[in-house]
Amino acid sequence: MKRIIIPAALLASTTIASAQPSLSESAPAPTSDEHAYYVQAGAELGGAQGAVFLAPTIEAGVRLGSGPLWAHGMILSGGAGEIDEANTTGTILQVRGGVEARTCSASRIACASAGIDVGYSHAQVMAEDWTDKWSGGMLIPRVGLDVGGDHLRVRPGVEVGFDSKGWNQLGLTAAVAYQW
Predict the structure, then answer these.
(1) Cβ contact 39:177 at 8 Å
(2) Which one, of 78, 74, 72, 90, lies nearest residue 45 by Cα?
(3) 57 - beta bridge partners?
(4) Residue 10: inside a domain, yes or no?
(5) Is 173 exposed, middle or buried (0-12, 13-18, 19+ CB in 10 A)?
(6) How far apart are the C-alpha atoms of 95 and 122, rounded to whole Å?
(7) Domain that holds residue 74
(8) Which residues are within 8 A (CB) of 161 and not within 5 positions of it... i.e. 6 or more apart?
(9) How many folded domains does the chain comprise?
(10) Is residue 21 part of a domain?
């Protein structure tokens, strides 16, 4: 009987040992379940150089590595008018890019962001007897929220703009984003 039990026990122990993975095998690298790209469409209501503007915006961004930093590019183009004059018309165009940091709740339903853009702005306002134009480089700090589900997000925010003459723009933003 001992002759049968001992070989059977040895056979069973080698079978069990070979079924376990090697302890020296490396575990697969963790994958981030956070999305790395987004596109968004929105609008900005603001004031610049004594004029008010309402402009649609298009933005796209990419996460830099696996940390909280994102790079993005944005185009803003819309209508502008003088605050003191009822019969004015004008346009505003901005092209910019920047970096922002984003921090989210554990569930990622709500996030906060803060960043800074560098860009170029051109605007003009025309009335019956005068025209005002301005253009140049800008520095635009911005803060905002990012609220929603895995793919569809709502992004309200506030931004200010500075050019070579100092502070010249304040804007309220709202956008709907799709991220993947």
Answers:
(1) yes
(2) 78
(3) 42, 76
(4) no
(5) buried
(6) 9
(7) 34-179
(8) 48, 121, 138, 139, 140, 167, 168, 169, 170, 171
(9) 1
(10) no
Residue 98, strand partner residues: 72, 117
Q: Which of 146, 152, 61, 45 is nearest to 99 (CA)?
A: 61
Tokens encoding 51? 């004029």
Query: pLDDT tens string for the chain (180 positions)?
Result: 555 555 555 555 555 555 555 555 544 444 455 689 999 999 999 998 878 999 999 999 999 999 999 999 999 999 999 877 778 899 999 999 999 999 999 999 999 999 999 999 999 999 888 888 999 999 999 999 999 999 999 999 999 999 999 999 999 999 999 999
Q: Considering the domain boundaries, does residue 87 fall inside one?
A: yes
CATH number at residue 43: 2.40.160.20
Does a structural domain hold residue 147? yes
Hey, which bits of the chain come out as E strands? 37-48, 51-63, 69-82, 89-104, 110-126, 131-148, 152-163, 166-179
Longest dimension (CA), the chain: 115
pTM: 0.78
d(CA 48, CA 82): 10
Query: What amino acid occupies position 137?
Result: G
Token code pair at residue 6: 């001992």
